[in-house]
Each structure stands twice: as structure tokens, then as C-alpha cells.
Amino acid sequence: MNMSANKNSVARTGEEITLAPKAEPWAQDAQQVLEELKVSRDAGLDDTEIHRRRELHGPNQLHQKRKATVWKLIFAQFKSIIVVLLAAAAAVSVALGDVVEGIAIVGVIFINAAIGFVTEWRAVRSMEALRELSRVSAKVRRDGEAQNIPAEDLVPGDIVLLEGGDIVAADLRLLEASKLQANESALTGESVPASKSIKPVAADAEISQRTCMLFKGTTVTRGSGEGVVVATGMGSQLGEIAAMVEEAEEEITPLEKRLDRLGHKLVWVTLGIVVLMAISGILAGKDFYLMIETAIALAVAAIPEGLPIVATMALARGMWRMSRRNVLINRLSAVETLGATGIICTDKTGTLTENRLTVVRYAFESGDVQVESSSKGEKSAFTGGGNTLDPEKEPVLRAALEVGALCNNAELRDGDEEEQVGDPLEVALLRAAALAEVTRSELTREQPEEREEAFDADVMMMATFHRQDGKFRVAVKGAGEAVLKVSSHVLTTEGKREVTEEDRQRWQERNTKMAEDGLRVLALATKTVESSENKPFEGLALIGLVGLLDPPRHDVRDSIEQCRKSGIRVIMVTGDQPETALNVAREVGLLDQGADAHAILGRELQDPEGLSEKQMKDIRAATIFARVSPKQKLNLINIHQQAGAIVAMTGDGVNDAPALKKADIGVAMGQRGTEVAREAADMILKDDAFSSIVIAVRHGRVIFDNIRRFVVYLISCNFSEILVIGVASVAQMPLPILPLQILFLNLVTDVFPALALGMGEGDPQVMERQPRDPGEPVLAKRHWQTIVGYGVLITVSVLSAFWIALEVLHMNAEHAVTVSFLVLAFAQIWHVFNLRGRGTTLLHNDVVRNPYVWGAVGLCVLLLLAAVYMPGLSNVLKLSHPGAKGWLVVIGLSMVPLVVGQLLKSRPTTRKTPG
Known about the structure:
Layout: E1 10-12, E2 15-17, H1 30-36, H2 47-57, H3 70-76, H4 81-95, H5 99-133, E3 137-142, E4 145-150, E5 159-163, E6 171-183, H6 185-188, E7 194-195, E8 213-214, E9 219-231, H7 237-244, H8 254-283, H9 288-302, H10 307-324, E10 327-329, H11 333-338, E11 343-346, E12 358-364, E13 367-372, E14 381-384, E15 387-389, H12 395-406, H13 424-434, H14 440-446, E16 449-456, E17 461-468, E18 471-478, H15 480-485, E19 487-492, E20 495-498, H16 501-516, E21 519-529, E22 540-549, H17 556-565, E23 569-573, H18 578-588, E24 600-601, H19 613-621, E25 624-626, H20 630-642, E26 647-651, H21 657-662, E27 665-669, H22 675-680, E28 683-685, H23 690-730, H24 739-758, H25 781-808, H26 813-831, H27 851-869, H28 873-877, H29 883-894, H30 896-905
Helix pairs in contact: 3-5, 4-5, 4-9, 5-10, 5-24, 8-9, 8-10, 8-23, 9-24, 10-23, 10-24, 12-13, 16-18, 23-24, 23-25, 24-26, 24-27, 25-26, 25-29, 25-30, 26-27, 26-29
């Protein structure tokens, strides 16, 4: 990228205003870049300057191709082969002199198109609005304070703070880099993360060689750092690429593919039946034009071309419902998969627990110190041996508080807990230090930080180096066993002494005991070295252990019990100690209190290929996994998927991204999750709560049930129309229903009730069923039996009414056709109530409770009355007033399919599924 040629600059009143480096920023010293951008690293930009620069450069966004313009959606409504057939029928009508009928058919085409357009437009806009809810954010320093802002608000000159897992939101010139690595494969094609530094490079360096730069759209895979924004939006390297690359095609969900396959099958079957009917009718002496037009109309009636529209609407509405319950869906296909989920692998911290860590205990060589404080951080006391302790007079306690504050990337602010910035564990350490009036800002003024050794999942530790009296104080925190292993001394009230093997065993027992008490345990250590380049994790002096309490969420136990009833297994997968995991598992109801259970350690998942059949069986049956690394999570998912399970997996870190991708449903945390995890996930929990996963699974089941319900409804109605015409043709009867009447019914009694069924709240007992087989088609054998059964019932009612009108009531052809038309129409409307779930009652079921169903029924009844009594419309449809006796036949026979259907539904059954 030629940065000097693309300066994010604009001209105003004839003057060129530039707010970007005059030369390639990677070739300049960091301080020089800051000066040219007119920004202080320590203070950042102020509100006035931010506003001015945002006006100059606009939002930090890539120009996006509009995915769904009005004209594109309108055109899509006319691409169907069925529309072509209808248009041909209209042309034939006009050619044969029936202009009114030709115009009516064209009118039906446009009305169908209008319904499809409005429905699809709403669905598309719903999806776009949902995407707005999960935008990338950035942590910046403005007006001297760290704050989180939407990435689109970044402007050139902003000071951005970065940690592992963050998505880089703009092109940055690095000012600080501690073990910083970035995945730049999207730009360079290099799969290995690139290491970063702050040293300038040659002006003509390739992108992969610009080690002092981070680029928009890449991800920080390790370490931490600071950078200044030098290019935003289309001025970034990613922006230049975006300008040349077309957007990828829109994702097609598995459900859409299945519905599409179903539609294609119906097309060929229907066309075959229609051709046979047309030929048999013509050979029987019926009007040639009438039979051709009827055949085309039947094809339209038989094929549920509204399925994709109604399915998209049902999915989009389900996504909105979930968003109101703290669940954001990244991929439409996830909604369908949720209904088949059989295993939920969940993290412990923040998902099963509150993720509001509080330091409650320190364990030192001299004994334990309790920390008592309110959740609001009011004045508290450190107590040991029943006495209140003054941290100023307790050197070991003071050292623990200082190291916990120094080896820390969080920021503690006054005010609500929600305003704290950083990892909850680090925030808790800062709060504990603040209780003794120890603050990180004061400590770093006296002992400036020179280097940070970022937390590494492999070594389970983090370290910072601080200049002190010409030397460097090293502050270390990490997992208890990891810090114990690299500690050669222990800090006591008399000073340091060497650690013996007996000491290590005793400390390990204390570590285990604290974990068994349900505490999250951390070890603190320190040392003094001559150079900041010294290795941090050797020769340490152990200060002690820190016990942090993270209470279980109040709603988790009920949610886990709900999963049990639903046939969903919940598995805890945590990086914490096995004792802590087991304690929390008992607290939340994953394990029974007092039950003899053990946790499988992550190392047993390291090599799945080397596992015996018994070991594999034990792993599949296990509920608790502890000390699990991200790679081991991936192996666990694979083990369960190979056994045919649909697996949901939670994750929050950058290293969790592969597991989130591998899982059938990847679930990222919205509050503590990294941007990389959110991007990789299928859904995001805004509240990080396990109960939200259960809510999402319920919605997934309801949505699939609704889709299956309206598919059964549509096809059974269409099948009845084919049978009515088919039987009449074979029996040499007059046609009981005319082509335009079929088109009208297809428009009225198909679309509105189907849409209403797609918006149902679902069966209250939906979570008392076992998970759906993921390989099960939209329509199983039992559903085809239902379709045929209801189709036959409706056909018998219509043909009976037609015979009664002709032979018993001696009506003329137009009045008799009106009666059969109304019986077919009302039978299809009442048929919507046959779609209630088995095991429910006539008056208490999810269809009756659905207000949209009643609205659709009322609208359809009004439209049918208009078709009979409204001048003009009744003439076009060739309908007339059936009289009192005719209405009695219509009401009586149209209710037959409903009455029989309800009797069949009331039979004793163990199944509680719709249809």
C-alpha cells in the first residue's frame, strides 16, 4: 500500500488538510508518526478533535455492496418457472379473447410478487439490523482514559490498546509491542502468525515485512501492545483490497437446500400429474383451452413456491426473538441446527458462574488471610488468626497486593462494576489492592513498567518487569502448580528462604484444598534482576496463593435440569483445576451432592488416535473435563461428532476459535469473549449466561417445528386441489373449481395461514422431547401420511358438496361451483387448526394460542366473502350467492376435515411433535 498516496485527507476552502503521516509510517520512528498526527500517546485525542476528524474522514467502514436493493428483490419475485407458466396462461387467455381472465391472471402474478417482496424485504432488513448488533469494538485511550468504542468511530490519531484475541479495527503504527503476534493470513497468505516490534522498516518493505504495523481485519493472536491509527476505512490496506474484490455469495442454509430439493421433487411429480390430467380431460371431450389453463393453474397450486419466503421469515423472526433474550445469531443455518443439539460443552467461568470474581483469601507461609469486602468495594478488613491486619505492617501481604496490581492489564474505575475494563480476575486483584489503598497507577509511577511477558496458555503464567532502584522487579502471576514449579524460594515475614520438596508438597496440598473449597486459585511470585531481558519464569520467590470466589449463576441449576428433560447432555470443559470444577459442578447440579465423581484431565484428550475403545467410551460418558487446552477442546468435539452427536461449544479466547468453528454450534461470549471468538462463532451470548444457550436451543426447536408445520399445511392444501380436479376429470364430472378460483385460493388460503404458523410461539412442552435426529428430512414418512390423509378428507368434502349442489339442491353450474369453491376454501382455512401438536387439546394448543393464526383466519374469511359478494371480483372469479341452503352445505361439509382431524389428534399417543 502506498500510504503517502492515500492520506485520508480532504480539501476545505481550498486548503488541503492532512491528518496522516507524510511518508510511509512503517518507515518512520513512532514518535515522528505521533507528531505528524498531532496526538499525545498518554492523553490520546480529545472530544473536539475526534469530532473534527470524524467529519473529515467519515466512519471507519469499508464500502459495502448493497446486498438487497428494492429492484433486486422485485426482480427475484418473477424468476420462477411457475410465473412464466402463469404468464403464458394469461397470454393464451388474451389471444382467445378472454381479456378479463388474462388481466386477472396477471393481477394474481403481481399480488403474489407483492406478498413475496414485502415478506422478503422485512426478513432481509431484520438480518441486516441483527448484524448491526454484533459490530466490532476497539479499546482506545481518549482524554487520558481507556474506553471501549465501536470500531467504526476510530479516526486517524486514535491510540488503540491491544490484547491477544482482538481484531485490529484500523491500520496501526505500533508504539509498544510485548510478545505481540498477529495472524495476517487474510492479507499475506502466510498461515504462521507474524511477530511484531516497534522498530521502523524500509519504506519499500512488503506487507509481510512491515513488522511495526498492524492492519485492519487481522487478528492479534498473542501478546499485547499499543498503536496509533494511521488509516481507516477504505484508506486501509483491507479497504484497497475490498475495492477490488466482489462480495462472496450469500450463504445458503441447509434448511433452504432441503426445502429447495423438496420443491424440485414436487415440481416434477406435479407436472407429470398435470400433463396426464390435461390429456385425459381433452380426450374426454372437455374444452381444450380450459384444460390447458387448468393444468397450468394446478401446477401453481400444487407447488408451494412460497416456502422459501415463509421459511426465511420464520428464521428471521426467530433470530429477533433470540436477540431479545441476549442471543445474537451470526449464521442463519445455526437456527436450524440448534433444534438438533444433543450436547452442550460449556465453560465454567462466566457461563455457569457469575464471572464476578472477588478475592476472599490469601495463603501465605505464615497462614491464611481472609478478605472481607462488600460487592460495591466499601472499606473492608484483612483478617488473619481472628485479628485485623494492617497491610502496611504485613510485608508479605503488601507484596502480594503490589504484585497482583503490577502484573495486571486491567483498569479499575470509580462507579459501576460494568465500567471496569479488563479481565475479571485482574479487576478482582486491583480491587483487593485498592482496599489497602494500593493502586497500579501509583505503583507504576514509582516503578515504571519496562516489559511485559504476556500470558501464555502453554506456561500458564504472565510476568511484568518494573524499574526499581537501578534494577528490575519482576511480578509474576499464574496457575498454582506452574508457579510452584519455577519457584526456588518462598517469601516469609523474616525474608526469603529456599523451597524444599516437602514445601512444594505442602503448598500443592494447600492449592488443592482451596480449589476443593470452590475457589479459583492463583499463585503470586516475584524476584529482582539486573536486566529486563532476563528470563522471567525461573528462580522466583513464591509469595503465596490467592483464592477468588466466583459464585454460580442463580438460574444455571434450573437450566441444567431443563437440559436433562430435553435429552441434552451438559459437559463442563474448563481450564481450571479438577477440584474447583467438581465443586462448581455439584453447586450447579451437573453432579449430585456427595456423588463419587472425577474429572478427566485435558492431557487424556491430547492424542485421540492413541485411545483404546474403553478410554474413548469413558471420555464420551464423562461430564467434567479440567485443565483443558483449546486444542484438547477441538479433540473432544471431534470425539463426540464421530459418535453422531450435534455439539454446541462455548469459548471466549482467540485460541478457542478453531473449536468454535469445528463445533456444530459455536457459542462465543459477548462480554468477556475476544473479537476473534465472536467472529468464529455461530452465536453470541450478550450476557455470557448458560441459560441463554438453553433459551436458544428452545427457539431452534420451535422454529423447526413451525417450518415443518406450515410445510405440511401448504402441501396438504395443494394436494387436495390436485385431487379435486383429478378425480373430477377421471369421473367425467364438470370441473368443481375453475382455474382463476384455484389461483385465488393459492393466494389467500395458502400464504396468510402459512405465515401465521411460521410465527407461532411453539409448544410449551417442546423442551420435554429428545433432540431431533439431524439427518431427519423436513417431511418424514408420518408427515407424508398426514398430507395424503388430509388431502383426501378435503377432496371428499368438496366433491360431496358439489354433488349435493347439483343433484340434491338442483343448482345451476355457477352456483354449484361456488359451493364447492367455498367448501374447499373454508376446509383449508379450518385445516390450520389440525396442525396442533399431538398430545394437546382442541382449545389448549400452540396454534390456538397464536394470535397471528386468528388474524389470518379473519382476513381469509373477509377475502372469501368479498370474492362472492363484491361486484367485479365475483364476476372475474365466476362466483355467485349460494343461498341459505348452499351456505349450510358449505359450513357443514367444510368442517368435516377439521372434526375428523381433531378426533385423530385426540387419540392416545406418546409423541408430542407437531403434525
